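Write out the bound-state structure for zinc ion.
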Amino acid sequence: MADKLIIFDTTLRDGEQSPGASMTKDEKLRIARQLERLKVDVIEAGFAASSNGDFEAVQAIAHAIKDSTICSLSRANDRDISRAAEALKGANSARIHTFIATSALHMEKKLRMTPEQVLEQARQSVRFARNLVADIEFSPEDGYRSDPDFLCRVLEAVIAEGATTINVPDTVGYAIPELYGNFIKTLRERIPNSDKAIWSVHCHNDLGMAVANSLAGVKIGGARQVECTINGLGERAGNCSLEEVVMAIKTRRDYFDLDLNIDAKHIVAASRMVSQTTGFVVQPNKAVVGANAFAHASGIHQDGVLKARDTYEIMRAEDVGWSANKIVLGKLSGRNAFKQRLQELGVSLESETEVNSAFTRFKELADRKSEIFDEDILALVSDESVTAEKEQYGFVSLFQQSETGEHPRARIVFTVDGHEVRGESEGNGPVDASLKAIESHVKSGAEMVLYSVNAISGSTESQGEVTVRLQNSGRVVNGVGADPDIVVASAKAYLSALNKLQSKADRVAAQG
Ligand code: KIV
Ligand code: ZN
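---
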């Protein structure tokens, strides 16, 4: 029988650490449900001690999710570990993931601790955590750049204290596949009690090798857990991408000979959901989930695929959740058809009120756009998460006027804590005028560091999906808005970013 490879998703923790990718509790819960549908084995729901918001998100996910193990990160100290255990109470299956840096650089410059102090703290923390939860993961942060002799001592000690998973992070994405694979292999061979724990890989993508390194850790090193994120979301160049690692293991089962729990047909919906929630757009040529991942433009390729699809395709688009028939619904589609399509896309809305509200927006959209694609439906549903929250700012209506040679003007109506207000402004273009009209009232003083427009589904009839990234007092947030009118989409995105700026998060960085 083939070994099982555990998929540990950290989109909601390491992914969320990416500047601008912070999510609300409801957004995290929605993504956690999608990860459960995907049959992810372990969901790292957050870093409970980092902020009250993260604590509540871990707690809510621990209560709602039944089929995946729920994990909270915690630094190697009693306070963080107790907080993680508290947030995880009520979970069907709970894991505490505790970490401390072990590289000479991090110990000396960041922690200002001696190696002996770090070893002792690691040992004590695992002992403390083991009294609260049975499933304990330990990570030596910057493990790959740590002295192997010291690392062996630390890992042997924490396994002896009861750590059940040993994760070896390449925190700064410095590894090379063969070297990383051999690093894990050597640790497993040298540590006498290494067989008492499951070995895990956690690779960052700074040199574009996170997936390759993770796979080498599995194949050469014998790791049986991979830590990854949807779309490879994460700080700097991101983490190992879940969809790529999963499809590599599935497609090349002949080579890896490993079993996975993952139900891959929910991958595309998960990718869309994460992208729309965070505003991190997926590049068109991204493996598995990019819009072009299964598109054949050249005549020779198209001809080949029509004759026998495996001439140029190694995976089937529908196996990862791309629908074969792309035009799905129209203005005559009823509530049941809409609800069924949501189910087929792997989206389940919490209540009938949420379904009704999404269906109303679907009808409004169908009046303006004759063909509704899966991407439109997913955008509508992720909009639901914006409106479901008690947000400070909400879009109501927009009027804008532009003519060649004239200064564009915009008038916007939006709500502030439920009360309608109006703003008016001129601008360089209609989008500029509309956002200035909002700012004329809000006066946030935030700096816009990114503005991007993306057509949700190909044609000019498509909805525009706008991402706005704002920065204020050291905080960076992304807002996303979708509408067939890109000026309206821009205003929605701007208001969504302002809402995120308002929700003050004073969190502790995991690698701080
Ligand atoms: O990259 C890293 O080292 C981490 C640890 C906190 C596990 O994310
Ligand atoms: Zn990491």
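---
DSSP finds 17 helices and 18 strands in the chain.
The longest strand covers residues 393-401.
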